[in-house]
Amino acid sequence: MHESCGIFGVYSPEEDVARLTFFALFALQHRGQESAGIATADGKKIKIYTGMGRVSYVFTEESLKTLTGHIAIGHNRYSTSGSSRVSNAQPILVGSGDNTIAVAHNGNIVNAAFLYQELVGNGYTFRGSTDSEVIANLIISSSGKDYLEKIRYTMRRIQGAYSLVILTPQALYAARDPLGVRPLCLGKVDNGWAVASETCALDHIGAEFTREIEPDEIIRIDENGVQSYPGESGKRGTCIFEYIYFARPDSMINGKLLYPARQAMGAGLAREYPIDADIVMGVPDSATAAGTGYARESGIPVVEGLIKNRYVGRTFIEPDQRMRDLGVKLKFNPLPQVLDGERLIVVDDSIVRGTTTPSVVKLLRKAGAKEVHMRICAPPIMYPCFFGVDMATRRELIAAQKSIPEICEFIGADSLGYLSIEGLIKSIGLPRENFCLACFTGEYPIPVQLEMDKLEIETLEAGRPIEACDAIEDA
Asked: Which of 10, 139, 166, 318 would give a disulfide with 194, using CB separation of 3.0 to 4.6 Å?
């Protein structure tokens, strides 16, 4: 399961803003590894540099030196709309002359195909196939008297999840959708201001976290500092998986540090699904904190039973058949001396398709585990996400097709327990109405198509019509 993107923006007349953005994107690398990009502005024009791969692959000292100015935005991409190709790398640069902007987007727009057709019909051209480029062209196409009006107009046209950073030659804008699905925060640097998907990016560049940007809020940062333009947000819908999996454990969302929240999820699992066992382990790295929480609550010792190769990630070198057959061993290596003969509780963040978990269980048994009891922090995922998480279609979700006992048998575990929705909410310590829980309940905060294709705009681009789909009504 992948989250869409990480975004960052900075305004600082006395800093090397391209370098600050590089290091902030480095801290947000977990949110996307397909492409990276930085755009800068100096008051007159915008410069941009993008490429495929991780931040450290894309940028060099030479490329950073070309990105001059005092304002910058940056982006790490994992594709949820549009294929993985360089023309879809962000930031997206659109417009001409004085009406030029760069946009970086985290999220997913559910009515992007309709808006794409409208813009093409009005003569706008697209170099890529992402909903982010739709957003950028909507801003440019607006008749608003200034960028604030243009951005607000765009926010009233698009539906779905979005956190945005927008670069003009003179200013930095940031905006968040009315539900607040994706995180976005504001921080103070020594000589200016920064915005980021997560507080960990602010920490890495020495910025001081100020506050979260509110749902439906627009902020403008320029020579006069920060100006806030609140919206009309009412209903909230923060993605629950930011707490379970996506965000780094050292980040804060809604005033909650994620590490203790994940420990509390593990403790909740220990209360809901106790079992007599010898050792506990969390699957690294996303369930490490939950594993320690389970161990603390149950009184069963916690161990490191799997060592993760943290350098295994997206690569452009295709594995041969032998390496493909090794499967999960490319990512994890077990410790037989720790696991041999032990009754093992394994805490993991989620089971989506059920393709990886059987391999993990098999790996642990081969290393000598006598029993393997799976405990999962996320309740059963029964519905797909349409708000920026590349999850699966409903027919691919194992919990939508099998009962919990059937899943347990399928993955080869001795027992299986999922944290309840109530237990998950209690672990986080915020009201249930703050969150989007649609992947568990099927109750989407806004109407969505039952089946959406991440390559939908590319289908239109090729001149093929998109079949109409029924919508799920607003709960």
From this structure: 10
The answer, yes or no, to whether the previous bond of 334 is cis (omega within 30 of 0) is: no
Q: Which amino acid is at 274?
A: P
Nearest to 31, CA basis, from 198, 206, 159: 198
Please write the tens of the pLDDT for every residue from 218-262: 999 999 999 999 998 778 899 999 999 999 999 999 999 999 999
Same fold, 2-236 and 253-428: no
Per-residue pLDDT of 425-449, as tens digits, reads 999 999 999 999 999 999 998 877 5
Helix (H) or strand (E) holding 48: strand 46-52
Nearest to 100, CA basis, from 18, 37, 41, 50: 41
pLDDT band at residue 182 using 50, 70 and 90 as cut-offs:
very high
Strands of 88-180, DSSP E = 92-96, 99-109, 160-167, 172-176
The residues, any chain, with a CB within 8 Å of residue 163's CB and separated by 6 or more, are: 7, 105, 106, 107, 174, 175, 176, 177, 182, 183, 184, 197, 213
Q: Which of 273, 266, 215 is nearest to 244 (CA)?
A: 266
Q: Which two tokens stand for residue 6?
A: 């990480």
The full DSSP string for 190-207 is: TTEEEEESSHHHHHHTTP
Compute the average pLDDT of residues 7-18: 97
- State how far the Cα of 332 lies from the Cα of 359, in Å rounded to an integer: 10
User: Rounded to an integer, what distance in angstroms lies between the CA atom of residue 97 and that of residue 352?
Assistant: 46
The two most distant CA atoms of the chain are separated, in Å, by 71
Report which of 35, 8, 4, 389 is spatially closest to residue 174, judged by C-alpha positions.
8
Read out DSSP for 392-414? Answer: --GGG-HHHHS-HHHHHHHHT-S
Q: Which fold has domain 253-428?
A: Rossmann fold (3.40.50)
- Measured in whole angstroms, how far is the alpha carbon of residue 269 from the centre of its chain? 24
**CATH number corresponding to 2-236:** 3.60.20.10
pLDDT level of residue 185 (50, 70, 90 thresholds): very high
Residue 98: band (very low, low, confident or very high) from pLDDT cuts 50, 70, 90? confident
Strands 46-52 and 218-222: unpaired
Q: Which position among 5, 377, 436, 439 bears the catalytic label?
A: 5
With beta carbons less than 8 A apart as the criterion, state whether 262 and 244 touch.
yes
Domain boundaries defined on the chain: 2-236, 253-428
Residue 59 CA from chain centroid, whole number: 22
Contact predicate 351/320, CB 8 Å: no
439 part of the active site? no
Beta-bridge partners for 102 = 93, 167
Closest to 374 (Cα-Cα) out of 468, 256, 280: 280
